[in-house]
Amino acid sequence: MKDWITPVTLRGSRVVLAPLAPAHGPDLETAVADGALHRLWYTAVPAPGQVAGEIDSRLAQQAAGTMLPFAVLRPDDGAAIGMTTYMNIDAPNRRLEIGSTWYAASVQRSGLNTEAKLLLLGHAFEDLDCIAVEFRTHVMNRQSRAAIERLGARLDGILRAHKILPNGTIRDTAVYSVTASDWPSVRANLLSLLERGGRGG
């Protein structure tokens, strides 16, 4: 199971998910400044000037076998506009989490997130034969929770006092999941959202 998850490019009409590389750094510096996302206290988005370090951190976790990071690209010009990952990879139990995701503010609520999740979930269930995929977010991140719920993921519960954040606050983590048996309905929901314009994410 060591090579259960390997780098892959996932292509859609609204987004391309490509293996993250240092070369994406300049575009991601521009993207992270779009909306000053790092100022949201309940997220872990890198600040301008910290993107190269974030890329290095994610690639180190990939080398350790615990993460597969992607750059989120616009399909028309290939510009990187965000990041996402498979993380907390549990190969023996065929489970993983989709997380550490952020997008430039200008592409949010454009359908990009809906298609990105369709691609990531499709690869997880149809190619990797996952039994479950998790999503985790700060209990106070209402935008993220609403987006996860629109996908069709179900709330498993709240991990109280789960993490100490860099600003010293304590994070309660909302844990959601999609199981293999859920996937056909979730897939149909995501395709329906995209057909209606994809404004769900």
Tell me briefly what this model is.
The chain has 201 residues and is an alpha+beta fold.
Beta-strand percent range: 25-35%
Helix content: 25-40%
Structural class: alpha+beta
Q: Note the main sheet.
A: 8 strands, mixed
Q: What would CATH call the homologous superfamily?
A: Gcn5-related N-acetyltransferase (GNAT)
Q: What's the architecture, going by CATH?
A: 3-Layer(aba) Sandwich
CATH class placement = Alpha Beta
Can you walk through the features of this model?
By secondary structure, this protein is an alpha+beta fold. It has a single domain (10-195), classed as Gcn5-related N-acetyltransferase (GNAT) (Aminopeptidase), CATH 3.40.630.30. 30% of the residues lie in helices and 30% in strands. The chain contains five helices and eight strands, in the order E-E-H-H-E-E-E-H-E-H-E-E-H. It has helices spanning 25-33, 51-63, 112-127, 142-151, 183-195; strands at 10-11, 16-19, 67-73, 80-90, 95-103, 132-138, 154-164, 170-179. Strands 1-2-3-4-5-6-8-7 form an eight-stranded mixed sheet, with helices on both faces. A hairpin with a 4-residue loop joins strand 4 (80-90) and strand 5 (95-103). Helix 3 runs antiparallel to helix 5 (183-195). The chain starts with 9 loop residues before the first strand and ends in a 6-residue tail after the last helix. The model has no long low-confidence stretch (mean pLDDT 90).
Keywords:
5 helices; Aminopeptidase; 201 residues; alpha+beta; 30% helix; eight-stranded mixed sheet
